[in-house]
Amino acid sequence: MKTWGKKEFWGIGSEYDPDWLLTEQQKQLRERLIELCRIKIRPHAIHSDRTYQYPRESIKAIAELGLLGLIVPKALGGMGENHVCCAMVVETLARYGCPSTAMIYTMHVLSCSTLLFRYHNNPHIQGLLSRIVKEKLLGAVSASDPTTGGHDWYPLSSKVRQLDERYVQLLKFGSWVTSAGHADFYTLLTISPKFDGKFSNLCMFLVYQDEVRASTDDWSALGLHGNQSGPLLVEGKFDIERMVGEPGDGKKVILGCIDRIFTLLTASWDTPRRFISRVTLLFPTQDVFGESIIDTNASRSMVFLIAQTLDAATKNNDWSIHSDLSVVPRTAYVHWVWQMKFFASKNVGVVADKMLHACGGSGYKTDLGLERLLRDGKAGWVMAPTNEILRNLVGVTALTGFTSLDLWEESTNDHVVQQQVKKMSPEQKEALARQLLAEAAQEAEGRDDQHSYQDTDFNNPFNTAPPAALTQELKTVDGTVHKPALKPDCWTHLTLSSRKEVSDKMSSFIFSLPDATDHTGCFPGQYVAFRVNLLGVCSQLIYIFHKANDVFTLHHYFPGEKLEFQGPCGGLEYTANELDELTLLVSGAGITPALQLIRCVVRNPADTTRLTLLYFDDTYEDILYRTELDGYASEDERVRVVYTLGEPPESWEGEEGYIDTHMIDRHVTKPNGFKHKVVICGGPSMSMSCLYSLRKLGYPPHCAFVFGQFGAEQVKAIYGRNARLASHRCDDKQ
Length: 734
What we know:
Layout: E1 3-4, E2 7-8, H1 24-51, H2 56-64, H3 83-97, H4 99-116, H5 123-135, E3 139-142, E4 158-162, E5 167-177, E6 185-191, E7 202-208, E8 213-214, E9 230-239, E10 243-248, H6 250-267, H7 271-279, H8 286-313, H9 334-359, H10 361-364, H11 370-377, H12 379-382, H13 387-400, H14 414-422, H15 426-449, E11 474-475, E12 481-482, E13 492-501, E14 507-512, E15 526-534, E16 538-545, E17 562-571, E18 581-587, H16 591-602, E19 610-617, H17 626-635, E20 639-645, E21 655-656, H18 661-667, E22 676-681, H19 684-696, E23 704-706, H20 711-719
Parallel strand pairs: 3-6, 18-19, 18-22, 19-20, 20-21, 22-23
Antiparallel strand pairs: 1-2, 4-5, 5-9, 6-7, 7-10, 8-9, 11-12, 13-14, 13-17, 15-16, 15-17
């Protein structure tokens, strides 16, 4: 009999649990874990969901059972358990405890697995693994990318460079990182130090909590409120011992470890059984429950079958087999774990709907608890690799064979190309041929013209030289001498003179230069850096754009306090009359560098540059500096401002929706040989979308300048790896 404390369990009994798959030791572990869920984890689940609170107490309780070392070998202080036990533990946490906690634990086990995959000749990693249980250390993985989304094997937003035999320089921006800022250590998927433009050339790195910048303040989601997913940024100089495996070994880690184990554990959440357990005693609709149990146990059976298969292939999850770097036995079952994850995630949604229908109005109310579980159950479908991607991969491999699988876009499907070309008329074929020849010539030119300095500066990938500074003293007509206040090689204290809320999401901060007659020392379009020490914990380096009243979120500081500034640090170096036209494609807070460029043009009557701003924001009220921008557009014929809104008001007569191909075609001057630069500033998805539109409309790659550390990678992703990049200067001189 299954018990819940001193009483019989109120849900589905042990008759429908495949206990014959578990060893006696694993059954005992499950009993202890169920009791832990009853006493500590389950009571926290509702509160964590309502308040978005990270379930730290639940994680501590799991650590007390030694479960943070579940797959760590016994020789390193762990339990040395197998895939079947991993599936059972995650299922138990999700079913009897808390789905958010189960997700956090899944990412911890996954992080441990990436280290164990290549720990054999690395004393540093061995040392960490030996401390996990004793010091109760929690891990997490950062693989998802803000640009490539569910294609978690494609870390476009990462850079790694070998500095010498011992150190590498690393820059990684991850999105949707579970336990962002809460975990003690992270394993990161990045490109390799020997990156050659092919994204199959990957690496894994180990970093610690005090080496990441992460925030979950904006974490708001449909479900799994407690897992605190958020963006994570890592940058700095790291010892080569932090590299997990050899350069380029990340492809094997993805195919032979991450995707296999992650999909196994996410499929093991077994949330449907929790739906069934929650309502079965209240509404005895036998056929509905019967079908749900059958479907769910079919899903469970597939999970445990594949777990057993992986155990058989890896000598019961013996990590020592991977001391031979060529051994990747889990890879052979990739298409099976894809099917398993898809089926389990789909079944969650189906069973959730059935339970809601069975419960009627009671199920719709939050009191029963079904609503929370229904929301949590949706996560598996969209979690990378998403079910949309998985069914495509399975379909492609089933119909055309595994040789056609091209995760990193390294080969051409000649059959598809021929099929599409065959449909074209002679005129269409000629047009396509001309387009391809032009693109080939562009890429050849880009390859030949690539500047040796370009893309070597991690923060300024378009720069063909170190950032220039206005170091000279400037004398105005009244005879006043203006000295540069900032320097690029040292820090200067500036006093915060005022702060103002410019919207419900943004604040404006104005800093005073040391002397009232000083100038910043920056070109318009450049950014500066400041460093802070928040709560006495750690110093951070944060970039903002040139001028005194830019928008950034630094709510810990108030007028009268001082911060240290340094600059210029990079960005676009705008000079009057070097362009015929300047186009600014921006969204949200991306207006900040654009605004500085607009002000610069407007305040210089001798500058003949024509300027077009295409600005997206969610609502009319969210448009930053709207009054100022409208004033420039109405008073200066050189400036044209076009707004587009995601949620326009009823009387709105402007553009609607994201900046797209048609919008750019309507408002931006066509490529015509003029000196024209298109500056993009927004999120990764917005930047990629705009670049795609520019290419479709015939704009060359060297006219597009993207603010941000990964702008060059984004241009190459759209135009090709040999695309000629824009310079950081308006004249594009090398």
